[in-house]
Amino acid sequence: CGKEPSSYMWIYILLGNMLRGIGETPITPLGISYLDDFAKEENVPVYVACLHTIAMMGPMFGFLLGSLCAKLYVDIGFVDPGSITITPQDSRWVGAWWLGFLIAGTTNFLSAIPFCFLPKSLKIPEGASNDRSSHGLLENMGATKKKLSPENSKPRRCQIMCPFLSDFCTSLKKVLSNRMYFTFLCCSLLQFSSFIGFLTYKPKYMEQQYGQSTSKSNFLIGMTSLPPVGIGIFLGGLIMKKYKMSIIEATKFSFTMSFLAYAISFLHFFVGCDNYAVAGMTVSYE
């Protein structure tokens, strides 16, 4: 072509994903804190496990929805279906990728409405430690600040201009200085990095190696890869509640399960297919 086609549609997708991320971010940290503050201590692992299990169900339904949308032509509603001469198995086929955004966006909007009716705070159950809750921690921090006399504590300029930023930096420093949390954070980064890479390229691998369509690849990934993860998270929460594990016991349990998972993952090195015979790439031109 004399002129390469250019489209700025990716900017809209980028902005849409940014807004989606901003809206989804408070659910996990604030939701877990909400559960931890106002639920009985022995029930928190089950509630958190349910939260993460539902979070894993979302991508599963997303893959199923993507499988359905991939069967529909990209210009559905704008062209006559009878005039389409290619099928989803054709390499020129482009599915209705945009339809999933509309369906998911509408569902997110409707599911967000009940959050507007949640109370700001609930009654702390009997037997719960007030120091354990975030509300108790804030009260303790406020009491500590009041002990500082005005003569000995001269506020810095940045604290006066932006108190939120100062408190955020202080809280971030305390969190990152917690050795157990920092170790867990690094471990989670490694786990999710490997899982996301596996989940991203496995559909393409199935398309190339097994000759499957995009629709069927998404369907198989949604039905085989994600449900076991959700079931595992839920069972882990039940086990923690049943045996009332402490921090050290939960750490040992997590280490054992992760070690077994990594050992089984090594079996992927022994599974594969022969490369396609591509002239000039995998075989010679002769």
TrEMBL record:
Coarse class of the protein's main subcellular location: membrane
Keyword Disulfide bond assigned: yes
Cross-referenced InterPro entries: MFS_trans_sf (IPR036259), OATP (IPR004156)
One example of a Gene Ontology biological process annotation: monoatomic ion transport
Residues that span the membrane, as ranges: 46-74, 94-118, 180-199, 219-240, 252-271
Entry annotated with the keyword Transmembrane helix: yes
Record-level Gene Ontology MF annotations: bile acid transmembrane transporter activity; sodium-independent organic anion transmembrane transporter activity
Record's bilayer topology term: Multi-pass membrane protein
Domain of life of the organism encoding this protein: Eukaryota
Signal peptide: none
This protein's UniProt keywords: Disulfide bond, Ion transport, Membrane, Transmembrane, Transmembrane helix, Transport
Subcellular location(s) of the protein: Cell membrane; Membrane
GO cellular component: basolateral plasma membrane
Similarity comment: family membership: Belongs to the organo anion transporter (TC 2.A.60) family.
Protein name: Solute carrier organic anion transporter family member
